Structures are given as structure tokens and as C-alpha cells.
Amino acid sequence: MAQRIEMQICLGSSCFSRGNKDVVMFIKEYLKKNHLDDKVVFKGARCMGRCSNGPNLNINGVIIEEVTIVKIERILEKEFAGLI
Ligand code: FES
Prior knowledge:
This protein has three helices and four strands. The protein is an alpha+beta fold. The protein has one domain (5-79): 3-Layer(aba) Sandwich (Glutaredoxin), CATH 3.40.30.
């Protein structure tokens, strides 16, 4: 059985002011649309200490910075290429 992917988005105030809310909405929709809900654990996280480069997203322990609404789709497509 494939390993589940853990994904955490920073919900700290700096990442919030940089638009993480839109990214959260996009990710939720994307997971649902592609039937990834049972393969991916998606949670919020506290400040990751990289505020000036936010919004930040942690995928299986690797932090991806500057995750904007413009970039998120490409990031997810790359991450989940083998799963969809
Ligand atoms: S608020 Fe997101 S890294 Fe600090």
C-alpha cells in the first residue's frame, strides 16, 4: 500500500497576510477533485519560522516557500504526479 503523504500549511499570521487562506481552499478542492483525500493528510501548522518567505507548505518534511495561489497548482501536480 502506498504511503500517505503528510502536508501541512502554515497558518501563522504572516503567512495568513500573504494569502495562505486562498491556498488552503485551493488545496482542499484539489484533493477532493482528484480523489486524493484518503492518500493525503492535510493539516494546518503553526509558524514555521520562515515568515518572510511565506506562505509556507510542508510536504513530507520538506518546506516549500512562497506557495501562492498562482504557483500552488503546479506544485501539487508535481507532487502528486504518480498518484492521480
Ligand atoms: S507565519 Fe508562516 S512561517 Fe511564520
